[in-house]
Write a structure and sequence with these properties.
membrane; 58% helix; Monoamine oxidase A; transmembrane helix; mainly alpha; 2 helices; rod-shaped; transmembrane
Length: 48
Protein backbone atom coordinates (compact mmCIF):
# COMPACT_ATOMS: atom_id res chain seq x y z
CA UNK A 1 0.00 0.00 0.00
CA UNK A 2 1.01 3.58 -0.59
CA UNK A 3 1.29 5.66 2.59
CA UNK A 4 -1.13 8.60 2.85
CA UNK A 5 0.77 11.81 2.28
CA UNK A 6 -0.89 15.05 3.31
CA UNK A 7 -1.20 17.53 0.45
CA UNK A 8 0.45 20.80 1.39
CA UNK A 9 -1.08 23.96 -0.03
CA UNK A 10 0.96 27.08 -0.58
CA UNK A 11 -0.15 30.52 0.60
CA UNK A 12 -1.34 31.44 -2.90
CA UNK A 13 -3.31 28.21 -3.37
CA UNK A 14 -5.10 28.81 -0.07
CA UNK A 15 -5.87 32.51 -0.53
CA UNK A 16 -6.33 33.20 -4.24
CA UNK A 17 -9.96 33.10 -5.42
CA UNK A 18 -11.09 30.81 -8.20
CA UNK A 19 -11.11 32.05 -11.79
CA UNK A 20 -14.82 32.92 -11.63
CA UNK A 21 -14.28 34.76 -8.34
CA UNK A 22 -11.34 36.63 -9.84
CA UNK A 23 -13.42 37.67 -12.86
CA UNK A 24 -16.19 38.90 -10.54
CA UNK A 25 -13.68 41.01 -8.59
CA UNK A 26 -12.19 42.45 -11.80
CA UNK A 27 -15.65 43.21 -13.22
CA UNK A 28 -16.80 44.85 -9.99
CA UNK A 29 -13.72 47.06 -9.65
CA UNK A 30 -13.93 48.04 -13.33
CA UNK A 31 -17.59 49.03 -12.92
CA UNK A 32 -16.86 51.09 -9.81
CA UNK A 33 -13.94 52.82 -11.54
CA UNK A 34 -16.04 53.61 -14.63
CA UNK A 35 -18.87 54.96 -12.46
CA UNK A 36 -16.46 57.16 -10.52
CA UNK A 37 -14.94 58.46 -13.74
CA UNK A 38 -18.37 59.32 -15.18
CA UNK A 39 -19.36 61.13 -11.97
CA UNK A 40 -16.07 63.04 -12.01
CA UNK A 41 -16.44 63.87 -15.70
CA UNK A 42 -19.88 65.41 -15.20
CA UNK A 43 -18.76 67.31 -12.08
CA UNK A 44 -21.13 65.34 -9.84
CA UNK A 45 -18.28 64.36 -7.57
CA UNK A 46 -17.12 67.22 -5.32
CA UNK A 47 -13.36 67.72 -5.40
CA UNK A 48 -11.82 67.65 -1.95
Amino acid sequence: DVPAVEITHTFWERNLPSVSGLLKIIGFSTSVTALGFVLYKYKLLPRS
